[in-house]
Amino acid sequence: MHKYQPRFHLVRANDILKLPYSTFRTYVFKETEFIAVTAYQNEKITQLKIDNNPFAKGFRDTGAGKREKK
């Protein structure tokens, strides 16, 4: 599991080319903090994720991490 804290960056710029050098403010809202599950203890849940999540490429047969489907 990983803890994430989204940040909102507000940038003032008159020209897109000057964006990296522009004045900015960063805002963090404590309410938006979340924990993402990166691994499951239950293999049935893992298989459910693989079967239904198009972004779970690492566990598919064509992905880097090969996993046998039960």
TrEMBL record:
It is found in: Nucleus. It comes from the Eukaryota. Its main location: nucleus. GO terms for cellular component: chromatin; nucleus. One of its GO terms (biological process) is positive regulation of DNA-templated transcription. GO terms for molecular function: DNA-binding transcription factor activity, RNA polymerase II-specific; RNA polymerase II cis-regulatory region sequence-specific DNA binding. SUPFAM superfamilies: p53-like transcription factors. Keywords: DNA-binding, Nucleus, Transcription, Transcription regulation. Residues 1-61 form the T-box domain. Pfam families: T-box. InterPro entries: p53-like_TF_DNA-bd_sf, T-box_DNA-bd, T-box_sf, TF_T-box. This is T-box domain-containing protein. It comes from Operophtera brumata. The lineage of its organism: Eukaryota, Metazoa, Ecdysozoa, Arthropoda, Hexapoda.
